[in-house]
Structures are given as C-alpha cells and as structure tokens.
Write a structure and sequence with these properties.
- The protein is mainly α and 136 residues long.
- It has one domain.
- Helices cover 49% and strands 7% of the residues.
- It has 3 helices and 2 strands; from the N terminus they run H-E-H-E-H.
- Strands 1-2 form a two-stranded antiparallel ribbon.
- Helix 1 runs antiparallel to helix 3.
Length: 136
C-alpha cells in the first residue's frame, strides 16, 4: 500500500477512475457544444479496456511487504486513456461527426458510472474513518 496513503491501491484506482470519467464528461460536453460547428470531428475517450487490465484478476489476493527485504509488488499505475476522433458513418453536408442523441446517451451513462465510482470511494473513506475513530 506504500505510496497510496491509507486508501491503498483500490482507492488510487477509484480516484483515477473518477478523473477519467470527469475527463470523458468534458469531452462529451465539447462534442455537444460543437454539434453545429462545420467540420468538427467528435472525440471519444476510451479507457475501460486499459483499466480492466490494470486491476488484479478476480480472486487474486493483494500482496503486502512486511519487511524491507521482501521483493516489491507490481503496483497500480494511473491510466490516462486515449482520445480518438470519430468519423460518422453517414456523412453530413457540413462534415460534422457529432450525433447529438448518441452524445446525450453517453453523457447519461458516464454520469451514472461517475456517481457509482464516487459513492464507492466515499464509502471506502467512511469505513476508514470509522476504523480510525473506533466507532460503529
């Protein structure tokens, strides 16, 4: 858990996930704002596959170093995702690739997933606070 504070690797993972969800929300908002801009290419932030690979496999127990002589464990490293320009399958006359309905759908799904990650991190912090204070 060294380097990630009291929240450990899982807390760092959740914080990184929140940052990426926020970044995706900004990109979606930019796409919506430019829906009528001629020649604007919609952008996407893809990070789910990379985040899945950065997590341990289900059932794997996290390793802890109880002595300085132990070998270090591979730690979680923050991921940033990849921003890609999107071409529309049905070209518009103004060469704009923003599909407003798809963007609104993506925004709703991203907001729900952001809220879930925020609630999960908040719950982890609350449990840690409860342990520190010694309350139930």
């Amino acid at each position: 858990m060294a380097g990630f504070g009291l929240l450990g690797e899982l807390g760092a993972y959740k914080a990184n996930l929140l940052n990426l969800r926020h970044k995706r929300q900004e990109i979606i908002a930019a796409n919506v704002a430019n829906a009528d801009t001629p020649g604007y290419k919609a952008r996407r932030l893809n990070f789910e596959d990379v985040m899945k690979e950065s997590m341990p496999a289900p059932g794997d127990l996290p390793m802890a170093r109880t002595s300085g002589g132990h070998m270090p464990v591979a730690a979680f490293s923050p991921e940033s995702g990849e921003i890609q320009a999107v071409e529309t399958p049905i070209p518009k006359g103004d060469r704009n690739s923003v599909d407003l309905e798809q963007e609104m759908s993506r925004q709703t799904a991203n907001q729900l997933l952001y809220n879930y990650a925020a609630q999960s991190l908040s719950s982890q912090i609350s449990r840690l606070k409860m342990v520190i204070e010694g309350t139930k």
